[in-house]
């Protein structure tokens, strides 16, 4: 094994066990590195002597580095360009919200400022969604669990992160093991993020969805549906041919049933998030909204309508008008009483909005993702 990240959970745990070092030191080491990102291994106090030699020979404090930080004009979005050990780039995006803005239930909202981090799980993507810039670059490589967790560590130096969404570059469930290990690390010491504050988005990798509720109980699942019928979905999402809509919805029914059994024991009620990009003349007509109502009538979901973000000369689509988006939302709410939100776009001025992330070469700066405040969607039930 080469020199790896101290945040690569399986490798670190295996090496500690192999050397006979108690693994309870791992969260302590992480906590020290997070607070002292430029530290040397010898500066960490109170470790067994064998741990110091193991750390020096096998691990780095970080295998990635922040190449640049760009803030949006309104100051609510920050884009981190992260350089990996292999020279490739990914991005993480911090989105800041003030939960006190507006009203909830006719009353002033409680809370205060909070930040959500959007992380990448792959360099590039195999899915090839035609409305997403990442799909245009093809698949380069998977990130390790450590490289995913390091995005959280880097972002935590700039803002206190309260929620994490796997909605950046890549299809998370095509990098299943690393994503599962990263989520487990984030929900354990010293990060202590509740699984309910972590959301994994997928185009619908059925075999992975089938085991997700067992591997990551309490996690939020978001499904990039984007069309209510198979032929339209295949038109804009080529990978949908491998995951037929009928089979995907069957898998989500099983997932929902298993999730409801779990959350009833935990006195919680979690919904599946349905992501739906609004493409003018493609999937945004009134009959599409009625088809979506029919498709989701037996599900407990939140639908998030996403205004399409142009991706330069790569774009063959147009953004739906605000009138069409609001009509679509009204039909979903009115026919089936489906909770439906319209995604607030953040960071467009720094190419930090949904679907804009792309890296064409190692010399080129990539572009990434924004999301409605996930905590608002999770907490209302």
Automatic annotation (TrEMBL):
Signal peptide: none
Chief location bin: cytoplasm
Pfam families, alphabetized: Radical_SAM (PF04055)
Domain Radical SAM core, first and last residues per copy: 111-349
Subcellular location: Cytoplasm
Swiss-Prot/TrEMBL keywords: 4Fe-4S, Cytoplasm, Iron, Iron-sulfur, Metal-binding, Methyltransferase, S-adenosyl-L-methionine, Transferase
Entry's Gene Ontology cellular component terms: cytoplasm
Classification via Gene3D superfamilies: Aldolase class I
GO molecular function: 4 iron, 4 sulfur cluster binding; metal ion binding; RNA methyltransferase activity
Stored CDD domains: Radical_SAM (cd01335)
GO BP annotations, alphabetical order: rRNA base methylation; tRNA methylation
CC cofactor: [4Fe-4S] cluster
Protein name stated in the entry: Radical SAM core domain-containing protein
Organism this protein belongs to: Salix brachista
């Amino acid at each position: 094994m080469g020199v790896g990240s101290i945040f690569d959970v399986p490798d670190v745990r295996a090496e500690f066990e192999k050397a006979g070092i108690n693994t309870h030191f791992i969260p302590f080491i992480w906590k020290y590195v997070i607070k002292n990102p430029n530290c040397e291994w010898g500066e960490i106090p109170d470790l067994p002597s064998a741990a110091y030699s193991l750390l020096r020979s096998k691990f780095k404090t970080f295998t990635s580095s922040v190449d640049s930080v760009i803030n949006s004009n309104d100051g609510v979005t920050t884009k981190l360009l992260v350089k990996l050990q292999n020279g490739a780039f990914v991005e993480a995006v911090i989105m800041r919200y003030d939960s006190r803005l507006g009203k909830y239930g006719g009353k002033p909202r409680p809370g205060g400022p909070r930040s959500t981090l959007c992380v990448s799980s792959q360099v590039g993507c195999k899915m090839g969604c035609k409305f997403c810039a990442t799909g245009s670059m093809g698949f380069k490589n998977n990130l390790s669990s450590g490289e995913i967790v390091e995005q959280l560590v880097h972002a935590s130096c700039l803002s206190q992160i309260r929620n994490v969404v796997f909605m950046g570059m890549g299809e998370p469930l095509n990098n299943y093991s690393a994503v599962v290990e990263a989520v487990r690390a984030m929900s354990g010491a010293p990060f202590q993020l509740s699984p309910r504050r972590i959301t994994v988005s997928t185009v619908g990798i059925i075999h992975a969805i089938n085991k997700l509720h067992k591997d990551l109980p309490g996690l939020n699942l978001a499904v990039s549906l984007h069309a209510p019928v198979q032929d339209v979905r295949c038109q804009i999402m080529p990978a949908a041919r491998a995951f037929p809509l009928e089979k995907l919805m069957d898998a989500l029914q099983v997932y929902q049933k298993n999730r409801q059994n779990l959350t009833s024991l935990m006195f919680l009620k979690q919904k599946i998030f349905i992501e739906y990009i609004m493409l003018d003349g493609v999937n945004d007509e009134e009959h599409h909204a009625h088809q979506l109502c029919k498709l989701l009538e037996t599900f407990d979901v939140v639908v998030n309508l996403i205004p399409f973000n142009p991706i330069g000369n790569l774009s063959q689509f147009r953004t739906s008008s605000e009138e069409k988006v609001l009509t679509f939302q009204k039909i979903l709410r009115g026919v089936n009483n489906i909770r439906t939100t319209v995604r607030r776009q953040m960071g467009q001025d720094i190419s930090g909005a949904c679907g804009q992330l792309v890296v064409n070469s190692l010399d080129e700066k990539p572009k990434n993702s924004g999301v409605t405040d996930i905590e608002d969607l999770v907490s209302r039930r």
